[in-house]
Amino acid sequence: MTWTRKDLLDLQSLSAEEISTILDTARVFKDIGARPRKVMPALRGKTVVNLFVEPSTRTRISFELAALRLAADVINFTAEASSLRKGETLKDTARNLEALNADFIVIRHSAAGAPHFLSRVLKAHVINAGDGAHEHPTQGLLDVFTMLEEKKRIAGLRVTILGDILYSRVARSNIWALLKLGAHVTLCGPPTLVPHTFEDLGCRVTHDLETAIKDADVINLLRIQHERQRKTMFPGLGEYTSLFGINRARLKAAPPDVLIMHPGPINRGVEVDSEVADGSQSVILKQVTNGLAVRMAILYLVNGGKLPQELIETDAGRTSDAVNSQQATATAE
Ligand code: CP
User: Which of 42, 143, 255, 320 has its CA 20 to 30 A from that of 27?
Assistant: First the structure.
């Protein structure tokens, strides 16, 4: 296939083939990242603006690092110190960034649909880094990449997503990617946060933890999204933890090789205790590492980069070595 999309806005609209192409490209970038010389000049001369209007640690830093590894210039926009605070609209802000030659706008916003809106008004590539409770496509991709790396398949994999599904953009992006690639998805949590309407997408819904995890290959834990809940959705955090929190004792109900995932940030002692979050079944930090390769793949593909096989055969080794030795020479000088 040829990559034709200017933007990455969601996973709902991507085909299984497109998702697989991103995962294959990320695999190449992960291999390049394991070399001593890690930079390739695919985005040299381009500018990536991280337009984060909501807080972030992992996504913003890994987009920044991904852009730097592709030799782009990077600008981190600070919403609190910007003219958004003086009433400037998102559209005006973004068009001003484009007037300063931004080639990529990576946007995180509390409003669902903000990236889609910008993609209609900008020529720049727009990448969704999380929009309200709608989608977080790069998180969904890095989660699936990690499952594939650890379990060697997605088709037929039994994935349980546990927690606040209703308000979770991570859950929605995981659901779209996993179902398109043939996984079985179970959703579990309090009935107010896991409505049966998700069954219409093809997921299994249960409000019983043991049923949800007893045959799971993967448990993806989600934090309670207090910032997006408009009313109290359950009696209290203590009750949530006693019914749905994952600890060592409760994990005995799951298969011994179950993979523990979490997109972060973790609320330790609420959805998961430290023994499990830091235990041998946890791949939480591997997810973060894989986010870099996935975000490099996205920036590279939307910029019109070659598809994985061609990338391996032509660019990857030669140009990354060339640019790294150029940089080493420049540093030495
Ligand atoms: N998983 C995730 O989106 O983390 P950040 O909010 O820190 O980017």
Answer: 255
